[in-house]
Amino acid sequence: MTITLNYYLLVSGLLFAIGFAGVLLRRNIITIFMCLELMLNAANLSLVAFSRFNVGPDGLPNFNAQVLVFFIITVAAAEVAVGLAIIVALFRARQTTHVEDIASLKF
Amino acid sequence: MDFITSIPWALIAWSVAKAVFVIFLVVLPMVSYTVYAERRVSAAIQDRVGPNRTGFPTTLLGFKKDMQIILGGLGQPIADAVKFILKEDFTPGGVKKFYFWLAPCLAMLPLVSLAFVPFGSSLFGEKMVIADINVSVLGVFAVTGVGVYAIVLAGWASNSKYPFLGGIRSTSQMIAYELSMGMSIIPVLMAQGTMQMSHIVQNQADNGWTLLPLWGHGLSLQSWLLLIPFGISFIIFAISVFAETNRLPFDMPESESELVSGYHTEYSSMKFALFFLGEYTAMIVGSSLIVVFFLGGWHMPGIPDGDGNGGLAILRELPHWILGLVNITCFFGKVAALLVCFIWVRWTLPRFRFDQVMKLGWLYLFEIALANIILTAAIIAFTSK
Amino acid sequence: MSAAATTTPVQMVNVQIDGVWMQFPKGTRVIEACKQAAKLIPHYCYHPKLTSPGNCRMCLIEMGTPKMTPDRKPVIGADGKPEIAWIPRPQISCAQDVSEGMGVRTNSPMVQECRKGVMEFLLINHPLDCPICDQAGECKLQEFSVEHGNANSRFLERKVKKPKSVELGPRVTLDAERCILCTRCIRFMQEVAKDDVLGIVDRGSFNSIACHPDRKLDHNYSLNTVDICPVGALTSTDFRFKMRVWFLKETPTIDVNCGTGSNITIGTRENRIYRITPRDNDAVNGPWLPDSHRLNFKFVADPKRLTAPEVRPQLGESKPGWQQAINLAAEALKKNSGKVAILASGRATNEELFLVSRLASALKASVVDILPRTGEADGMLIAADRNPNTTGAKLLGVATGKLAEIANGIRSGSITALLVFGEDATNAGLTADDLAELDALVAMDILPSATTDKAHVVLPSSAWCEKRGSMINLKNRIQRLNKAVIAPGSARDDWEILRDLIFAISGSNGLHSIEDVFKAMASATPTLAGLTLSRIGDLGVDLNNRELPSAGHVVPPTLPTL
Amino acid sequence: MNPLLFGLFAFLMLAFGVSVVVNRNPVASALSLVVSFLCLAALYVGLDAYLIASVQVVVYAGAVMVLFLFIIMLLDLKAEERRKFNKLAVGGGALVSLAFAAQVIGVLGKFPKGNQPFPTLKLPPDETLNDIQKVGESMFSQHTLPLQIVGVLILVATIGVIVISKRELK
Amino acid sequence: MAYVVPRPELTLKEKAYLPSIISGLKITFGHFKKMLQGKTKVTMQYPEEKWDAELPEYYRGAPTLVKDDHDRERCVACQLCEFICPPRAITITPEEIPAGERFEKVEKRPAEFKIDMIRCIYCGMCEEVCPEQAIYLRKDYAITGITRGEMVHDKKKLYELGGVFKGLVHKWNPEK
Fold first, then answer.
1. Euclidean distance between CA atoms E94 and C236, whole angstroms
2. Angle between helices A29-53 and D3-22 (to 10 degrees)
3. C24, exposed or middle or buried, with CB in 10 Å at 0-12, 13-18, 19+?
4. How far is E52 from chain B, CA to nearest CA, in Å?
5. Looking at beta carbons, which residues of chain B come within 8 Å of E27?
6. Which residues pair with C253 in a beta bridge?
7. What domains does chain C contain, in order, with CATH numbers?
8. pLDDT score for D1
9. Cβ pair C158:E79 closer than 8 A
10. Helix, strand, coil % (nearest 5) of chain D?
């Protein structure tokens, strides 16, 4: 038995599905946020797998995909910082992190 | 079942053997004797004697006096360990049990980062580093970064005010100083052109230590100019190590007087001992990193490495395993000297206020480290052909 | 207040005490008047319930009469009040009644000097054995010596030696050296106990208290002499050297040995009763208490006390928990519903009796009664009815006088279950064989008896000093019991046991505290309407001429029936 | 990568991913996510992406999740554990996710390239794969502009966070 | 009255902080060096070296009970020490001296006298309050035991530690 690209893609797809499910059925902003991270990482896993399985003529993996992963991680980190800051501000204003309690646009 | 046979069992076994050797025969004794050294040095600084009489407990066998072993008191760490194991281990009511137990286990995590550190050149042809990977610097930072969970979880799971405050403080402090720590090391990496620690050490052995460029390519204008950013890096890195290991003057999370010793207030017996040992392990890791990055790792001028390269010609004639052992001794000797400095600083300086700690980390060290990178880049750009 | 105050309209006289003019009824003793004016005058021989011999000289004051003009008119001073002609020598305040225009100085230099002198004389022969004296801590000699005496003794001669540790009677021990000859005890025996056995013998420095030859101080009120003795000369043989008084925690409560319901204070330390002393209540017992009642507390700490519920093996559960025991008892009683008799006790509190009546209706009990207990009345404080709460039992419908029906019912088979509450059924005309016939016998008690031996379920309850509650004495006065010590083992409050029994038989009743029970009882009993346990107060409430609650008074809502 | 290790880490990663979603306690969720990320890093190592693996641990486990934990503890979210799941939402969400997973499996079945085994790398003798250098070269030569943009993005994010977390917005 | 402590103006050298750290390190190193050279010696090696001979007159060690020159227990169980004892270490059970005994006239004595040495704080208030000069704090300070029970000194132990204390307490002198 050997591991092929499809295995990685399958695992990545399942991880994405799990994250997606979390976003759909959880109502706590922080948990939703964590599930978003899960989805981003699922994408990263596919990218790294593609990179490794796409060996170029020089006999090395295609590093462009890894650069993209790098960017994704960077952007995700920035997103988390901003997102959490917003959540804290929201909590200060509303004393809740429950999306159903935050129904009005302006407060 | 080819996938079972395809696992390199021999390699795994050998790595495990190395890890066990390093952890149980080198690091753990070192940790416990660091504790002992701390007590003796602090005692000497305060004009006291310190633990000086733990010996073989012959009184248990009916003799009048305990038997002293060479220097009285060297048995103290063993006695401490026995005491910690035999003490009642209680879990307070209301704690979140799983996390309460998990936290002290995580406290020993810094031990893992020692796997990346080259603590010797080679012995019997075997490289003296457990995991010699090309991103070992990042690996060390990854592991130490995860170490903060121990304190956060301990503080939170204790379900008590003071440990919680201690945990929160520690988290913010560690995030703050991890940044300046990582930033401060970048100039060294830039100059060395590698992230593999064994290469960094080898480079220093060949071309002069980062802070002592006296041979090889080290005798160039660039190396001498780079001493300025390296010096700054060294200071920032050392300060950050103090902060990361929660040592005085940065022992905010503990702060005996304000927070009743912070995150481990609710812990007792062996669980407490794990936090205690974790702190000293972190100290050893920190010292090892300083030695690797700035002080030439296992290298000592004039002494050849374990394969008989470099050094004085007369010494090259010695059996290689002796050279290998000497290299290991040099490394741990440097680490020990740094540890004494750690202890010395602890018993000299008072604790900072929390706002001062955060201000120092975010407002000074981080910015200076950033500027330092630019300075290094400029020096390298203008002095290389 | 003087005793005559209530009958005829009294004539008030003006008296100046320490410069302040006040009015007192004629006939008030000066020492009482000063007390009412919050000027405490030290005294030893004077006791408000006894005559005043005036022999201790401690209550000396400076006194004056209105200054008179030659035509016998009082001289009016600049402030519009009569001027006072002060008598140059001190007077004793205890043997002197107030009179119009009288002046009193309770703290003038002369008075202070007199007190100092009197104290010095009193202490000449007084031994310095406060460390072992049981009176230490509540000793008037100590107190006034600190307040008015000298710090040092000038007496260099040898002190007079007198007999110590003399057995005056079975319960009273005399230490003649400590005696200051105030004669309170002699007067008490003459005037109150009407048994003149004490007197002073010998002369001069050597005179001392003694019993009449061939007699003993064995009157049933003899321990009151210990109470009124201002020093440690008379001590209770029972309490002697047992505990220092300052360690005792004092709990005000009432005596349960007879229908009088004398007010008492229980002195305890670390859950042990050391002594019982009377508590002043003019409406009940004054400051007195009979010895037989006073010493009847030893059974509380009896090692044979029942401490855990027991169940006879045929019901299962050899060592049941409370819940199991109560469930088993409830089950056994319920099975015989309609054929149950309840033997309650006149020693139970109103709250308990109220719950007993509720239990009776829940069980459709055919007979409920208390066990009458009579003795001889002594004409003073001991009543013929030795049950402390017969009145309450009658009020709550528990005392029905149908006691004989229980025995008959059992013999005829119309009663198959019996709940005995704090009594021994063999005292109620039942034999051990009768008890053995029963289908279910549930006993609540504090000590093992013939009944608990036969009972199927034994529920250990609390003694009178271990619980709170109320009782109504023979003069229709409702008074409070307070908790002085904690019941031993897992014994519980009676009302809790009854409440749980009712609960197990007929479901929840919303009673969570003794106050709740009292509230429920007060709302079900018109006589008690408007009362709560705390409104009863330490001195009790007379139910005969009680002010009924005013129109605006909110009657507590009736609790759901059981 | 060894199938055994792949199976182990993939399973752990997915299991802890599920635990993130189903755990009521946000702290437990966050810690599950950390473990999930660590397993992901192990998978990266299996794919010879050492740099990415290290960065994954440093950034996600070491910084992002600590931040999450920090915020969760600061906010003291007790009410969340008492909330009841909305059954309709749970059912719907699970259904959509399952549909998505089924689709992924279906698509992968028709993806011939996906069945190739691990291609071997051609490396000079006595040398390991130096992915740091390669990624660096790629990043600083081919992708300079995106790199600059990401740099600006981080600067903007930093300023944004400072502005948002000021107590009074002026 | 509120008094604001003025903050000192710092020079650049002081602001830089590092020079002060170094001077601090110098001081501590000086102590370290002297200790290593054996120049400082203030610690007493306890079980071998003891201070017993130099204990001051007013030293407060373990509380003990004493007897007088006639071998009579001075304590009359007045329980004042029990009352005053801040940590409530003392428990006394009083009893009457039975008729016919030698010191019958004293009337009262402790049937049991216990001092819980785990609780005792060596404050000396019992000694101060004792009207009979029966309880004294002696110079024993090494009170040890393996069980809690052993650490409760009973009457026998207390008299063993206290011994005889000469001098007259006037009250029990039959002549006076």
1. 16
2. 160
3. buried
4. 21
5. 348
6. C264
7. 12-107 (3.10.20.740), 125-301 (3.30.70.20), 310-510 (3.40.50.740)
8. 60
9. no
10. 80, 0, 20
ipTM of the modeled complex: 0.62
Tokens for A107, please give them. 């407060």
CA distance linking residue C330 with residue C503, whole number of Å:
9
Residue B247 φ then ψ, to 5°: -95, 155
Phi-psi region of E114 (alpha: psi -120 to 50; beta: other; left: phi over 0): beta
- For residues B80-87, average pLDDT: 86
CB pairs under 8 A between B and D: 78
CB contacts < 8 A (A, D): 251
The answer to whether E43 contacts chain B (CB < 8 Å) is: yes
Residues 87-106 of B with CB under 8 A from D: 99
Interchain contact, C127 vs E171, CB within 8 Å: yes
* pLDDT per residue as tens digits for the range C469-478: 999 999 999 9
**Helix C322-335 / helix C494-506 crossing angle, nearest 10 deg:** 60
Question: Which of A29-33, B3-7, C180-184 has the largest mean confidence?
Answer: C180-184
Which residues does chain B have within 8 Å of residue D62's beta carbon, measured at their own beta carbons?
Answer: 141-142, 144-146, 148, 178
The CA-atom distances, in angstroms, between C308 and each of B142, C318, D136 are 63, 11, 82
Tell how strand C477-481 and strand C541-542 pair up. Answer: antiparallel
Strand pairing report for C417-421 and C84-86: unpaired
Stated pTM of the model: 0.65
Amino acid of residue C329: A
Write out chain E residues lying below 8 Å of B49, CB-based: 43, 45
CB contact under 8 A, B344 and E25: yes
Question: Of 1.10.510.10, 3.40.630.30, 1.10.287.3510, 1.10.760.10, which CATH number belongs to A5-101?
Answer: 1.10.287.3510
Which residues of chain D lie closer than 8 angstroms to A81, CB-CB? 67, 157-158, 161
Nearest CA in chain A to D137: A63
Distance CA C178, CA B262 (A): 63
B248: CB partners within 8 A, 6+ apart: B242, B345, B346, B347, B349, B350, B351
Dist. CA B266–CA C150, nearest whole Å: 59
Best probe of the D interface among B112, B129, B138, B198, by most D CBs < 10 A, is B138
Question: What is the model's pLDDT at position C267?
Answer: 95
Among all residues of chain E, which has the CA nearest to that of C127? E171
Which tokens belong to C546?
């009680």
Q: Residue A81 has which token pair?
A: 């910082």
Q: Which are the contacts of E115, defined by CB distance < 8 A and separation ≥ 6?
A: E63, E89, E90, E152, E153, E158
CATH 1.20.120.1200 applies to domain D1-79: yes
Partner-chain residue, chosen from A34, A37, A60, that has the shortest CB–CB distance to D134: A60
Amino acid found at C386: R
E111 lies within 8 A of chain C by CB: no
The verdict on a CB contact (< 8 Å) between D114 and A2 is: no
pLDDT (mean) for B111-115: 84
What angle separates helix B148-157 from helix B161-192, to the nearest 10 degrees? Answer: 170
Nearest-CB residue to B47 (from E24, E29, E31): E31
Shortest CA gap E71–chain B (Å):
37
Spatial contact of C224 and C50, defined as CB atoms under 8 Å apart: no
Chain A, nearest residue to D43 by Cα? A45
Q: Does E17 contact B at CB distance below 8 Å?
A: no
Predicted confidence at residue C43, as pLDDT, reads 92
pLDDT tens digits, residue range C515-536? 999 999 998 888 888 888 888 8
Q: What count of other Cβ atoms lies within 10 Å of the Cβ of residue A59? A: 12
Contact pairs from chain B to chain E, CB under 8 Å: 34
